[in-house]
Every structure is written in structure tokens, then in C-alpha cells.
Amino acid sequence: MLSQNNEKKKSLFPFPLGLIGLRQTSEGGSTPTGTATGNISGTGTGSGVATDTGTGTVTPPGAPSGLNYTNSPFAFLQGSAITTVTPTINGALTSCSSIPALPTGLTLNSTTCAISGTPTTWQASSSYTITATNSSGNTSANINIQVISNGSSWTARTMPSSQVWTSVTFGNGLYVTVSRNSNVAASSLDGINWTARTLPSSQGWISVTYGNGLYVAIAQGSSVAASSLDGITWTSITLPSSQQWSCVTFGNGIFVAVSTGSNVAASTTDGMTWTSRTLSSSTNWNSVTFGNGVFVAVSQVGNVAASSLDGITWTARTLPSSQQWQSVTYGNGLFVTIALGSNFAATSLDGITWTSRSLANFGSWYSIIHGNGVFIAISTQGTLGNSSIDGINWIERTLPSNTLWSSIAYGNGIFVVVAGTNPMMPTNISASSP
Fold this sequence. Notes:
The protein is mainly beta. It has one helix at residues 2-12; strands at 65-68, 74-77, 88-90, 95-99, 106-108, 115-117, 123-134, 137-148, 155-171, 174-188, 195-211, 214-219, 222-228, 235-251, 254-260, 262-268, 275-283, 285-291, 294-299, 304-308, 315-318, 324-331, 334-340, 342-348, 355-363, 365-371, 374-379, 384-388, 395-398, 405-411, 414-419, 427-433.
């Protein structure tokens, strides 16, 4: 009987009596209490179950500051991936935004405000406000972005009259073009809207350039040239002799003109008083340019080129093959020349040693220019163009009209072409890209 009562007591008190009053945790054990330090604090009685009587605070991060894009304004080439632009900034951020949205194809990293991507559409220089934000505030930076045309899109334009437009140049914020067998020139601030101008006389105006605050035009089959301070009012000047002058350029403070069918060249420092010079051989010198301290001329006959440090003394050079080398330009550390009636091109770092290259397709390649990171070549037949970032790898482009494209110029973010290689076929067509 006694043993039965003892068993009942055990069943009623399964724990030692000294532990009566302790609460079990969900794991079957007791939770100790103590004192916490830091932003969260708590108190307890030493042993037994903890009581959650503490309070806590979280200090927010400081507002970001000092957002800065060190290389603004930016000029990015249409169709080419940009090098990621990463700004400097003080503090952490949780988001980043742009007003207005970045150009199509560019993205803004939401946590670093870095800009990356490939811009797909040309645009003039535009302002953007970039804002970096966190829970405590924000900071902003204003930047400018321009997307430069890569020659992939062209728009037909209308000249003031139908002429044999032979050459176009850009300088001092103005495009200027001249025409053959007339006294008609034209000028444009934007490459879109043109105004007729008057040259001193009706001549075979064949080439125009700009340098040292002066526009200079030369005429083929005479000793006549002209100069203008503003591209509007022209003054007659005289070359050293009557030649089949073909091209004029400017570099290092000197204007240089070359001629076809002879070894005669000419130079001037003021655009007014010219001195006869002698090229390295008698041939059809068709084009001359300047870059990296060197004048370079190419011939439409054979594999002949020439270079000069001063536009006075010339040295014969050899192109990679015998072609009708038609036009030469310089840009991005490279001379590039193209050949008529082929897909041949050639490049040179110094104007002395040349390497053969290939355009994207065959064409009557007639004029080439470099502008802000891209080379563009045009053909004088059809709608054919080519563009290249490096002068080596070329992409086919399409001009807006099937006409006799004759000359291309670059300025102020825009490429401009005019037409007129056949004296019997005047036209009022030009084009701009974009």
C-alpha cells in the first residue's frame, strides 16, 4: 500500500522539487538570462528564463556624396561597345537613375552608377543628370554624352542648284563646297541646309580645304585659285603655273597642292603667295593629305606614293600594289588610301611603309575621310559606302541615292558628301550622316 502511494507521488512530480517553478523551452531546456551590450540590450535575473525587456536602434548610413564622372563630356561611337565609365562616389548607395534616360543601348548600373553598353543611335551632345540614392539621401552629377555617327545611316539633302560638285571641306564651323566649270560654291552650318556662294570666276574648281583661318580652293587646268576668310566672300589668287591641279590640303602651317600628269606641286604659308615645288616623279598625283607631321601624296598610276616633312622636299614611296590610288586621308594614327575600281586599300603608320588592306567590296572608290574615330569611304557609282574603326576591317554602308558621289568631309559630328565626278552630269544631291 505504501509503495503504491509513492508511485503516485512520482508520477505527479517528475522533476526534483528544487527545480519546481522553472519553465521549459521548446527544446526542453531552460533559457539563461544576462546583460547584452551594443545597440540591442537586455536584462535578466541570472538563472532561469530570459525576459525580453531590451530595446535597440540601427544607425542608417550617411547620404552618398561627391558623385563625379571625371571625363565628361563623353563622345561615343554609334554601334561600338564603350569602355565602361565608372564614377567616383563617397558612401554606399542603393539605386542610381538618369534624367533623361541614357542614349539607346547604354545602361546605368543601379548600385555603382557605372555606364556601359553599345549606343545604337546617333545624337548630338545632350545633358544628363545622374542621381545616386540611399535611405539617407542622394547626390547628383551632370554629364554630357554625344553619340557619333558611324556612317550607317544617311539622309539625302538638296543643294542650292544643280552643279558638278567636286569637293567639300569643313572648317571654323562651316561646310564649304565648290563646283566644276562654274563660279558656284555653297556653304552650310549644319551640312543640311545650303546657301549658294560665288567664286571669283568660272573655272574647273576641283578641290577645297581649310586651315589657319582660311578656305582655299584650286582649279584644274589653270593657275587660278581662290581664298576666303568666311567661306562666303572669295578672293582670286594665282598658283605658280597652269597645271592639272587635283588636290589641296593643309598641315603644319602650310597649304600644299598637287597636280596630275606632272611632278609639279606648290606650297604657301599664307594661302596667297604660292611657290612651285617638285614631287618625286612625274605621274598622276591625285590626292594629298597631312598627318603626324607628314604630308603624303598618292598617284592614280602604279604603286607610287610620296612623303614630305615640310611640303617642299618630297621622297618617293611604294604602295603595296599597282592600282588607281584615288584618295588618301589620315586619322587615329594611321594613313589610309583607297583605289578606284577595286576593293584595294592600304594603310601606313608613317606614310613610308604601307600594308595592303581590303575594303568590304569592290567599288569605284573615290573619296575617304576620317572623323572622330571612324574612316568612311564613298564610291562614285551607285549607293556604295564603307566604314571602318581601325582602317583595316571594313563594313558595307549604303548612301541614300544612286549618283556620282565625289567628295566627303567631316565636321561637328556629321559626315557630308557631295556629288559631281562627271562634268556632263550636274546634280543638286548631297547627303549627311546622320
